Every structure is written in C-alpha cells, then in structure tokens.
C-alpha cells in the first residue's frame, strides 16, 4: 500500500523494505501505453459511445433552449402583450423538458453500457494477466502490491467510470453549449463570460498542484490506520495476554490522528478551491450583467435577451463546479490505470510455463506421458547475489518414488522444493521433469502450508482444478484425504459457501481441502512443503494421513520437519547449508550414524527416555 | 448502551465546531438564495431604466453577497468537517479501548474484519452526521430565505412554488424508490466481481501451485460478465430516473413561467421579479434535495450508531474483581473440580508447584483451549475454582491476573513493527515479575534498561529467535509486516515464543509453541525453555516429545480430567499417551 501510493504521488520506482528482502514493485505503464490499452478496450464499444454522446449533446442542446424561451416570455411581458400569448412559450418549455429528459436518459444509458463494458474488459484482462505473472515476480513485489491494485485501483477506476465520467460529460457539454448559446444571443456576452476562465484555470492549477500529493498522503494515512486497527483488533487476545492495551490504543490513536489531520488539510484545501471559484462566478456574472446593461441601452439586444444571458451564466455555476471538482478523481483514476495496465504489460500474453495449466494429467499440455521422474543436476540458487542458498544439488527421483527433504531451518529445503515446482528458475544447473525432460514445474503441483479457501461453494473451490469434475469425483477426492465426513456435515454439504464471507473452515480443514485439490488435479509429481505444519499438534496426525493418501501413486517430494513423516518415505535426503549431505532410507541413515541419526536421536529422545 | 446515546454523544461532544458550522452554513444558503434576487433587481433597477449609477450600486451589492456566501461556505464546511472527523476519531478510540478491555467480550460473535469495519466505516458515518446536519440546517435556511423572497415578490407565485416543490420531490422520491431497491441488489452483484478478483489474487500462490490459473480466469470472466449485465441494468434504471427528474423540474419551471408571466403581464409583478421567481424556483430544488439526502445520511448514521453501541455495550466475557495477589507471586496454580466448555473439562483437579515446569497433554483440543482460557481468565469455569497462590482468579481483575500469568496462545499474533520491539513489548512491563519474583535477578525488566535488554536477548536465544533475526536483512531491527505475515510460520512461532519468554512472568502458559519448527531447533528450544524459566512456574500444553521430555512432570488429560501423570519417560509406556504424543 505504502509503496504503491508513493508511486501515485509521482515518486520514482520505490524500494520498499518488507520483512524479507528489498521489494521490487510491479511496473506501472507509461501514458502512451495506457492510452493505447484504453483505446483497444474501448474499440468494440465505439458505436455505443458515439451514439450515447450524440444523445447527450442533443439533450444538452435542447435544454439550452429553455433560457431563450424564458427570455421570450420576458420580452412578451415587457412588450405589453396579453397574457394569452404566454401559453405557447410555456408549452414549449414543457416540451423541451420532456425531450431533454428522454434524450438524457437514453444517452446516459448508452454511455454507461459502453463504460461498464470497457471496465469489465479491463478487470478481466487484469485478472488474467495477474494470474499469469511468474510467482517469483509477484513475490519480489510483495503480494500486497498486487492485492492493492486489484482492490483499490479497480474500485477507484470503477467509481470514476460509473459516476465521474457521466457527470463530467454532462457538465462539459452544458458548459460548451451554454457558451455557444450565449454567443448566439450576442457574441459580446460570450466574450465577457470568458473573463472567468483565467481565474478558473489558475485555480485548478493551484489546486491540482496541492491536491494530488495531499490525497496520496491521505490514502496512505487511511490505509495505515486501517492496517493498525486490523493488527490491533485482530490480535486483541494477544494484546490482552501481554497487557499491551495502552500501547496499542496509543498506536491506533496516533495513526487515526495523522489521518484526521490530513483529512482536515484536505477540507481546508477544497474549501479554498471552491471559494476561489466563487470569485470567478462573481466576476463573470457582474460582467454579463454590465454587458447586458450596455447592450440594452445601446438598443442592440432586448431586456429578455439580457435576462436570458444572465440566467445562462447563473446556470453555469454548478456544472463548472462539478467539472472542476472531478479533476482529482480523474487524476487518481489515471494513476490507478497506469498500475493496472502496468501489470498487464509485465505478464507476457504468450503462454509460458507459468501461464499454462501445467499440472494435471487431464490437462492439455501432454504431461500424460510424463513418467513422473525428476532430475536435478548441478543446481545452485541465490535469492540475493553473493548469498547462495543452494550449491550444486544433484538429485534423481524415480517415477512414483517418495522422497523426504530433511534439514534444519535455513538448510534450503523450501528453496529446492520451489525450484522443482517451477516457482524459481535455477541460477545454475538444470531441472528436468519426466522422461521427455520437460522444464521444472510441468506436471508438478505444489502444496504449501499457506492455505487459501476460495470464496464460493466448496464444490466450486474444488472445481477450480478440474472444472468438469462430477459430484462423485469431488466426493471421492474428499474421501481420499479424509475430508468427506466434515464436508458433508457442513450446513449445505458441498454447496456450502466457504471462504471469505462464508462458512469458516479450520486451518486443518483448509489444508485438507488443498490436498483434495491435489487429488483432483492428479499431477504425476507432487511437492508438499510442510503442508501439515500449520494445524498445530491437534490436527497434525490426521493431516499427515491425508497427505500420505493424496500423494499415493505419484512421485512425491515432501519437506518435513516431523521426522516420523520422513521415516515413512522411500528415501530421505538431508540438506545442510544448501548441500545434500546424506541420502538413503531411514534405516540406512540411522545406522550410518551421521547427521540424520543425530536428528533422529534429538527427536526420539523422549521415546528412548 | 443504545445507538441514540452514541449519536447524541458524537453530536454534543463537538458542539464547539458544529454550532458555528451550522450558523455559517445557513448564511451560505441565504447568500445563494439572494443571488437570483439581486439579478432580478439589476434588471428592474438598472437594465430596464438604463440607470448606470444603479448598476454600479447593485453590482457592489452582488459582490457583497458573493463575499458573504463564499466565506460562510468556506468556514462552515471546515467547522463541520472538523466536528465530523473528531467525532469519528473519538468513536474509533472508544471502540479500540472497548475491544482491548481486559475483561474482553467485544469480539464475541464478530470477525476481526467486522470490528475493524465498525471502527472505521461506522465511526466515519456517525461522524459524518455532522456534515449532513450542517447541510440540512443550511438547506432549511435556504428554503426559508428563498420562500420569504418569493412571497415578497408575489403571494400566489410564492405559494405556487413553495407548495409545488415538496410534492414534486415526493414524486421523484416515489419514482426512485423501487429503482433504488433494485439497484442496491444489482450494485451488490456488481461489487461481487471485484470481490472475486481480490479473492483469486489472494489465493494466487495456491492457484499457481496447483496449476488452476486457467480455470480461475474462466470462472472470473463468467462472474465479471454476470456483474456487467447487472450493472448495466442498474445504470439504465438510474439514467431513466435522472431523465425523469429533468422532465419533472423542467415542466415545473414551465408552470412557474406561465403563472409568473401572466402575473407580470397583468402588472402584478415586474419583469425583474419574474426573473427572480424563475431563478428561485430553480434554486429551491437544491435545498429540498439536500434535505432528503441529509435524511438518508441520518438514517445511515443511526444504523451505524446502533452497531457501534452494540460493541461498546457488549457484555464483558468475565467480570472484574478487586482482589490482590501477594507480592512477590510465588506462582502456585491450583484447579479444583473445574468443569467448563460443555464437557471439555470435567471436574479437573490440578496442582502446579511454584517454579515447576509442567507438561500438559490433552486428547481433546477443546480441553487445551479451555485450560488456557481459564488460566488467563478470558473465561471463568462453570464449576469449580482456579486459584493462584491461594487467591481464586474469579476475585481478581483480569488485568491483575495477567500481571502474574501470561498465556501464549498457539496462534498468538505478532504486530507491525521492528522484530525487537515485538519481543520486548512484554518485557518492558512492570509485571509482577519485576523485582519481586523468585528469579527476578535474571528475569525480564528488573528495572534498568540493561537488564531488560539482557532478558530479551536471553529469551531470543532460548527460543532460537536469534537465528530468525540473523536471516533477516536488518536483523532485530527488521520491520515485520502486519501480523508478522512477512515471516514464515516457523519464524513467527519462534519470535512469539521469545516474546513470551521475555515477559518473565511468574506463571507462563505456552500452547504448542513449536509445531512449525524443525526437530533440531525444537530440541534446542526445549533446553533453552528449561533454562530461562528456571525457578518460574511454566505450563506447556503440547504434544511435542522434545518439549515434554524437558518438563519436570507431565499431566495427561483424557475425558476432561487427569488420566495419568508422571515423567514423560514413564508415561510413554501407556498406549493412549503414546497415541496422543508420538506420531
């Protein structure tokens, strides 16, 4: 959030310090790229847009007839005509109103249809490209970057397209056509009305210079306040347990005060903005009245025309305020667009290994022939230059073999698992999956301790990996990982809405769901990275049984910290300091008396007691 | 506490800003109403007779009117905004305080996100009542002023406008009502598309891990198309509503022009007054629609106030108490006949000696959860008693209990901030441990900053959190993301354990502190735990053999009561215990 907003404020590409490494945010697009993208998205809706705008232009033009007709009423009265002569112009006024109403409704409807269509295409494209981004790239940026783009930027743009664009279009049309109409009354009215323009132009420039950074700072402050509240309220039990109530209340107060202060600065700025616009209103109105005075005295226009000019100008007040007030909305939407289009540009649309459905024997990429063997040769990897995490790893996993990766924290287990799953590309060496030697990641599924339950029904969640799966297949997959019982016990069974806003699953249930997805995806190779760690000790045993069932019949690489899990593997690979130090079966390694034997002793100490 | 009280407090609390704000806003609307009046006068007094002096005079009057309305607007809005923001800020703090209250209860039945929404969105809406009230008062002033001006021009014309406008807006409201309902439902479906997108992005790693990107994109496209259809329908309805409003007001102006024109033709009013009447008829629509808007905002504010009231008035989970613990706290824990949690614990008797390191193994996860709740007094037992050094916990204020007993839950949260600050958060407390516990000499926060620092470093070493720090780019100064999300599960656990150990509490209760830690590190932690807690009471609820082997004694709970106790090495011969522990 913070970093993206700094970018919105026009700062150069920022580096954000997160918990891990220095962040490299996803790119933002340049102005021409954004324009090209918007043009491409708008092209299919061109006709609708044009028709809508034409209707709005017509509506505004018709609406502008009101003032001259009123002027006509005034002239008739001033000319001492009988009251009956007024009926015709009054009827005209009513006809104008009806025509204007119908045309406006029709035009707005068309513009909204086209605008919403563009919006839908934009968000679909964004989601498609975001999901195609290499995971490594997303992690370098921090997942918060992508999340803030999909939530904040999309909603800002949506609000602008939905509300600001129609309002802006109508206001601009009214302003433009009113000025034309004033010129028709007498060109001198137009000339003096334009006296207000320099004041308005100056005011907008003055305002935009201050508003853009201020609103960016506001968004940062409000986001920080929200985050602080989430941390404090979400962690209330912990805060109480450690009696940190006062510090946390103070932290919330400090963040909230910062936000309040910035909001008030915003209020001061916008009130000064509208005050300055009042000055422009006065100057213009006074000038129009004075001009009316001279022209009436000189006999070149009637009192009715002068009144009409004054009414015109008075009616301009609110569209001008609306149009100028939308300047910063439009700017924030533009900033959001650069970030959305930036993501679309960052991910190549061509199907690469990450974009393609790469697991699943049922998938289209021909992994059906994969025998599930994995060959790692001479692989080295470093997250940060000069600090290698893996050195020269050689490892061959035969099809159907279960290999456990064991080692202390920081030994490189997770990194190796992710290389094989294709999340990272090795700096050195080569990884091949299957007999045909496909690249890493092909036909490999990765399940980690990070679980996410997708919002929607439980069945929909499972069908993400196999959209055409039948109900029976879903139940089979759940049964295999021991999840069918609780799934059927949910209020609506498999049709229960789960995830965000729905029924909350426990960590262990969510993890079993992830394993059921693995069963459905049915990849030849499965990599489990501590997929059973998050459950705490209570559910861990059940989860381990689920994991064992899920990898049945496939090649499996399991990163385990529970040695019992390792003991049941076909082979154990011990990593230390980024190197393979031992490999063999449990029995062999225990007898060998090396590093693994030492670990096993530490683990089973109590048992030997 | 009721919503009305919350709303009243929010309004009265800010009267210093709200009152001048309302007065100035009234001045602003009066000024706006005066503009068409002055324009009419200019036409009558200056343009029609061609009087240059009058023109200058009345333009000066117009300038004065503009000055008044502009400055009134500027300062009224600032005052109202200040009142609104301050009221929201104070509510936010009250909600935070209530949530953090040691007696708990505010979160019962609410998800954290919901509470955060109440503290942000609802607090903001209640504060914003200041804005809508100010606008409403200003609108009333504008109505009054415009109405008087119109009646002075002509009584029949004034009556026509004043009596005509409300039914007109009523009609528009009626027209809009069904649309509003329909569009609310459709807006919701539209919002769904953004929700689904955010959800898919949040699960990006999972999707990519299992290769479900394409299916996800297809599904998203369907959701998006669905939303699109709904939004387009809603937008079209809105467009017809807007068009309808234009028609109604246009026809109304035509009627005013007709009636006013006839009056002018018969000489009852002047031409300038006719211009004024038409201008005012248009102007009066604004304050009236502001009034109906303010009414809607007020309704929202009331609903928000009710939600806030339900948090502020939530019954505490446990009652307060005025008992005091002896100082120093020796740390003898005693449970007698404790039952709770619908059979999670059934008549549990348990004694923990001061300074003992006790392991607790439960077959039922609920028993563990309830034991933790009782020891930290986030709940009281249904039957039986929990005592610390002979004082029943139920007679103590929960804050007093937690000075002596720190309960470190399995899923305890870390907070945004430096790693070191997270760990030292509890060490800096003037806990009962400070200076008076049995092991104060080498425990946390024994007064000087040096001792606290030492305790933190010892705790970090014991929890193997020093290794975590060593792997971070800025060591202990590394800033953790919200809730420590930037760390892995195992790293988070070690940092949380270090925090618990650094508290140096006379009684420390740990729940599954090492489930995400590898075997080697776990063995090291078991040793460090024993050493750091030397002389202090420690209860470890866990199933890890390494931790249990380090305990002085292990209690095995089955069916809500003690099934066996003894050293871990003895208990492993029981098959049920082995099943619960060794896997």
Outline the fold blueprint:
The complex is a heterodimer of chains A (609) and B (583).
Chain A: H1 2-8, H2 31-42, H3 46-64, H4 66-78, H5 87-132, H6 135-141, H7 143-185, H8 187-193, H9 196-234, H10 236-241, H11 245-298, H12 303-325, H13 327-346, E1 374-384, E2 387-397, E3 402-406, H14 413-420, E4 428-433, E5 444-448, E6 456-457, H15 458-463, H16 471-480, H17 484-489, E7 497-498, H18 507-521, E8 525-529, H19 536-551, E9 555-559, H20 563-567, E10 571-576, E11 579-584, H21 586-592, H22 595-608
Parallel strand pairs in A: 3-9, 3-10, 5-8, 8-9
Antiparallel strand pairs in A: 1-2, 1-4, 6-7, 10-11
Helix pairs in contact in A: 1-9, 2-13, 3-5, 3-7, 4-5, 4-12, 5-7, 5-13, 6-7, 7-8, 7-12, 7-13, 8-11, 9-11, 9-13, 11-12, 16-18, 18-19, 21-22
Chain B: H1 3-12, H2 15-47, H3 52-100, H4 112-127, H5 129-153, H6 155-202, H7 204-210, H8 213-265, H9 271-312, E1 333-340, E2 345-352, E3 357-362, H10 365-375, E4 383-388, E5 391-392, H11 398-404, E6 405-408, E7 417-418, H12 419-424, H13 449-462, H14 465-470, E8 479-480, H15 489-502, E9 507-511, H16 519-532, E10 537-541, H17 545-549, E11 553-558, E12 561-566, H18 568-571, H19 575-581
Parallel strand pairs in B: 3-10, 3-11, 6-9, 9-10
Antiparallel strand pairs in B: 1-2, 1-4, 4-5, 7-8, 11-12
Helix pairs in contact in B: 1-9, 2-3, 2-5, 2-9, 3-4, 3-5, 4-9, 5-6, 5-9, 6-8, 6-9, 8-9, 13-15, 13-16
